[in-house]
């Protein structure tokens, strides 16, 4: 118990509330970071709807729907992990942390498969310097796609790294020494990354259906 | 689960949701994902599509924030922070939309 409580905080609840506050401040600026990427998307979508009509359907919405479900289920296992952490239930906590990380890995494996597929077909964001000044086209669409999904995937990767670290920490100590606050903080981050995907999914993958 | 709480920060016991509540939230979120896909298949004007897709995503985001991120149980300062992030984000997107919609032909 005392191991988890740090200097300026009078008790666990005080510490928990402060960590939650810090995480929400961090997530608010993360929302703005993704907001900038989304502004990039909005601008192109309004000014050049034709590139979305032309290339939107080359994205696999079925796979993306599965990925959405995987992330939502991982958020659920994360909620369970936070619950087990606060109740100091070591074994269920280890299982739910592992399940959350595994679902994150499954998401990234699907993402990697998707990227490989697009690169194979020459659908890359790499700009042809000879084409600068030309109308937006394939590279522009896949530029938006790779930048938005790429930054999201990096966030998932960071989440998996932290989940693994938590797992090792819980694994190497007894149940009485489980610190719940870092698990809660990781949960807040993980759910936020899930929320970002909830917007990315319709914005990129379903738009091709309209056209 | 009462919404009319005092501003004092929640204790750790309060932020831990019932498993049943989380299961219901997950099922609703998965259902809304299916709804988004179904709506995307309909023949509708592009603006309706954009509105429906972003509207459903926003509802899902609120569900995640309140049921998974226990936002409703946090203190007032956290609410102000979360809201300020949202307001700044909305300001940025709205002004960019005003800009792009009122420009002349691309040139």
Characterization of the model:
The complex is a heterodimer of chains A (211) and B (107). Chain A is mainly alpha-helical and 211 residues long. Helix content of chain A is 78%, strand content 0%. In chain A, α3 runs antiparallel to α6. The radius of gyration of chain A is 20 Å and the shape is elongated. In chain B, α2 (19-40) packs antiparallel against α3. Chain B starts with 11 loop residues before the first helix and ends in a 6-residue tail after the last helix. Chains A and B meet through α1, α3, α6 and α7 of A and α1, α2, α3 and α4 of B.
Helix content of chain A: over 70%
Largest sheet of chain B: none
Low-confidence stretches of chain B: 1-7
Q: Helix count of chain A?
A: 7
Radius of gyration of chain B, rounded?
Answer: 18 Å
Overall mean confidence score, pLDDT of chain A = 91
Quaternary form? heterodimer
**Outline type of chain A:** elongated
Task: Break the fold down into its secondary structure elements and pairings.
The complex is a heterodimer of chains A (211) and B (107).
Chain A: H1 12-47, H2 49-55, H3 61-86, H4 90-120, H5 138-171, H6 180-205, H7 207-210
Chain B: H1 12-15, H2 19-40, H3 46-68, H4 76-101
Helix pairs in contact in B: 2-3
In short:
The complex is a heterodimer of chains A (211) and B (107). Chain A has helices spanning 12-47, 49-55, 61-86, 90-120, 138-171, 180-205, 207-210.
What descriptors fit this protein?
heterodimer; A: 211 residues; mainly alpha; elongated; B: 107 residues; 70% helix; disordered N terminus
